């Protein structure tokens, strides 16, 4: 059973979701023992975590573990599942900061609590209540990710090195988020800066660091660890970039049915992505002027979105980005060709590379 | 040296601040290695943490450690200092949620970044940038508190039990904060609910849990741990309540010079404290009407503040609260009278009880 599972990402995803459900149900009970007013908070977090998500970070962590010679266990599934709670914090706070009101086709957390406030005709500002609830639920999800990891039952000899990778990953994430927020306040932009932001905010955090996290769960042999993590970086860094570039394309051209976000959401929010920076480098000055007059306008309508899309397409950037994604994904997959990574995991990581960067993500 | 220090809260506070400064300086370097745009984030966090603060939580943790039989070490100072980073997260997010623009006589973090944005005539909304920066700096401080604890060098045999206390403390804090935010949206209030919120948001988190955290650093002997933590609860729970009641009084009547917050800040923010709930229970219906017409109004002027203060004073609640503080503090100090807590620590905890609840805090 363990061996069958350990080479099957769909089965592992299922196990991860099972552990998340058990964890959240226990936490809901605990919150309700403090006060029944916490039920909506527990429910919102459960629904946010269980009603969707590709579980990419836990999957990379798990197959990073298997690839470094680890043997399947429930404890490791739990530890890997904890990364999904960290991701919940990142998304809840990100949606609030971006003013992004939809997530997976449903109201974002701040919008959900704003609506609850309105429905109850409660005292004070609905918007303010929604914002506060989203700040606190993000904080709670961050603490839960720690708790889930600490309670997972992983061996105490690997715990310190696992915590070290986990901390580094989270600091990189917050630093990348800060750079992103700061970049939106600048009047000029470069592809290079956009790449740095994407690398920290998303690429490393989604692929390279989860693989390292998994490896650190597998062995305390320093030489083995240094060797396998360096191969994981050779795979994870280009793949992380490709993943982010696909996200950039989906944010502009993606089908709302598949992205769970409104069409052209990144254009309305004025996200300074690598795609946008590349497009701007190749635009005529007339196009730049036209572009900047619509980009980031909260009331952007579908005609405005089409206009921006066609300017971006005309710049040639989307085709260039598609080629880059293919190239980076190939580089990543080639980096798997090493005996340092256990065979069964190499096959799955090769599949996950396609899943993380495919068009209809 | 160690023995002298270990019974002197001022010396311990000094050591805690030294470790915080070293930690933050190393983290600043790391952030700047990612991007120089992160310098203002690192500086703001350093200034927030180093330019003030009573270090109550680290002090209770440290003397909880000594009281449970621990021997002074730099590693333990570092572990206790990490609680100050958690407190930074709580304050930064709290100020943002409350719209409280001043902290220790200086702009709150969201206001600080709003001002930076204005000074640079940067693109987009200054208020939005300030909010996003505060969300991310709070998140970063939360992750830093983990990192500081993990890197402290405490022994690996106590690590799992320390993490367990730490997680429980943080979940209680976030739950208390959520209850508080929710309470502000209700149209009726009770003393009982206000007490529950104060207990989770502030009382347990400031005193009882830091003591437990310290005890869990000191010994892996389960019997000893159960015994000493139960005495710490007998001391910490009433003292936590007294601490919060003092905070309620200061929020209404405190001197801005001493609180670092504008006069009557809690009245302007409409904070539903235990003091306010008690006052309302004893107000005439005319006073309740008058009170509610001013309470929580953002444009409340000094005449309005005086009006609210005199209604509260007339209710008799402040005198009742003063008596309660004295009673609870005495109960706490009496609970120290046990050989289960090491003598040197009992003396200091008795002093800290006065410091945490005195009028000119």
Automatic annotation (TrEMBL), chains A, B:
Q: Which one GO biological process term can you cite for this protein?
A: isoprenoid biosynthetic process
From the Swiss-Prot or TrEMBL record, what is one GO molecular function term? metal ion binding
Known InterPro entries for this protein?
Isoprenoid_synthase_dom_sf, Polyprenyl_synt, Polyprenyl_synt_CS
PROSITE patterns (UniProt xref):
POLYPRENYL_SYNTHASE_1, POLYPRENYL_SYNTHASE_2
> SUPFAM superfamilies under this entry?
Terpenoid synthases
Q: Return the CDD domains for the record.
A: Trans_IPPS_HT (cd00685)
- Write down the Pfam families for this protein, in alphabetical order: polyprenyl_synt
Q: Which UniProt keywords apply?
A: Magnesium, Metal-binding, Transferase
* Keyword Metal-binding attributed: yes
UniProt keyword annotation of Endoplasmic reticulum present: no
What cofactor does this chain's UniProt record say it requires?
Answer: Mg(2+)
Q: Which Gene3D superfamilies does the annotation name?
A: Farnesyl Diphosphate Synthase
- Family the UniProt entry places it in: Belongs to the FPP/GGPP synthase family.
| Protein name (database record) | Unannotated protein
User: Organism source for this protein?
Assistant: freshwater metagenome
Q: According to the entry, what is the taxonomic lineage of the organism?
A: unclassified sequences, metagenomes, ecological metagenomes
